[in-house]
Design brief:
single chain; about 325 residues; alpha/beta; five-stranded parallel sheet; 11 helices; 5 strands; about 10% strand; globular; binds adenosine-5'-diphosphate
């Protein structure tokens, strides 16, 4: 029997290892994904277990380039619509049927094992989040270090453009409040977040998709705090599509620390303790280079100096959104 801390640790390693495999899978797109996964498992065993796996363990240097993204808004074309008889939707029944999926990777310990999320998660994985017959709502990501002002700027843009605001951190905190005392999955996620680490990717993506599905008719979404690691970039693209714009709020470390310390005094968030702050800063520094490079190559990311006053930053962001999203069209009236 594990202690809670031991269990949390084991869960973190297992999740990490699964995310590394997913990253490898998306990077290489092997012709035989099952054989690839078996090799990954073998390599994990040879290395000494999931705790010895790094995010890039399964990215081999001789990878083949990714095929170009050709469909609208960067989303990969679905394999085929399920038009056969049976319970799946046929051609007229709705275009939501998605990819042929890989079987799930069986982990020794899955956080979903005793969760009530399993059934609906499976459904959402199987079907499109947005109706492909309608124009997809705009999607903007706001990324930046902890304390860079993502939440503040997200709220301002959402209000200005009448977009829906989606804060991954806030969704997770709300879920923790509701479920953590009685649900083992959320209890473990509470420990992970309080420790300054990233919540499991499968949970994060599912929560995001729930928000999109709930607000299908939104003109646009502005997502705060996503993606935070390269595997989230790939998974989002695979399951939802490409964002229209990524705004990076760039702040000095000193500024970030000062803001977080101030917020700790004002709000008392459990992850604004010294250890978690350092861990979050370190995770951000570690992950941002690859994320920024990926979006840079696709011409999607704009860096904004976020060491300045809120209103000055917002003025710049408004101009960027206008140019990137509304350059050929009339900008919606400011609210
Ligand atoms: P901050 O940006 O200051 O870290 P947030 O409220 O955005 O604050 O996030 C709080 C915590 O929620 C993060 O430290 C992390 O544990 C979790 N979290 C937020 N976004 C993500 C994400 N995209 N993936 C995984 N965990 C996340």
């Amino acid at each position: 029997m594990f202690s809670a801390a031991k269990q949390g640790e084991s869960f973190t390693y297992t999740c990490w290892s699964r995310q590394s495999m997913l990253t490898g899978l998306m990077y290489h797109r092997p012709e035989d994904p099952l054989a690839f996964l078996e090799n990954c498992l073998q390599k994990t065993r040879e290395l000494g277990g999931p705790e010895c796996v790094a995010w890039d363990t399964f990215i081999m240097p001789d990878r083949k380039p990714l095929p170009p993204i050709t469909t609208a808004q960067g989303k990969k074309a679905p394999c085929k619509l399920d038009s056969g008889p049976g319970p799946g939707p046929g051609p007229g029944l709705g275009p939501y049927r998605r990819y042929d999926r890989l079987p799930p990777i069986q982990a020794q310990f899955s956080i979903e094992s005793d969760s009530d999320m399993t059934e609906s998660s499976g459904l959402i994985q199987e079907y499109d989040v947005f109706d492909p017959l309608k124009p997809r709502p705009h999607i903007i990501f706001i990324i930046g270090g902890p304390g860079s002002g993502k939440g503040t700027q997200t709220a301002k843009i959402a209000a200005h453009y009448d977009f829906e605001c989606v804060s991954v951190g806030e969704i997770l905190r709300n879920q923790l409040l509701q479920h953590a005392p009685s649900d083992r999955k959320w209890e473990l996620i509470a420990q992970i977040i309080a420790n300054g680490e990233l919540a499991p990717q499968e949970t994060t993506i599912e929560e995001l998709k729930h928000q999109f599905i709930k607000k299908q008719d939104a003109k646009g979404f502005i997502v705060d705090g996503f993606p935070r690691e390269i595997s989230q970039v790939f998974t989002f693209e695979e399951q939802i599509g490409s964002p229209d714009l990524v705004i990076l709020l760039a702040c000095s470390n000193q500024q970030l620390r000062q803001r977080l310390e101030k917020r700790a005094l004002q709000q008392g968030r459990p992850d604004d303790n010294t250890h978690a702050i350092e861990k979050r800063l370190e995770t951000f520094k570690h992950n941002i280079t690859l994320i920024a490079k990926y979006y840079q190559e696709r011409g999607l990311i704009i860096r904004v100096d976020a060491d300045r006053e809120e209103d000055d930053i917002f003025t710049d962001i408004k101009a960027i959104v206008k140019e990137k999203l509304f350059s050929n069209k009339e900008e919606p009236p400011a609210l």
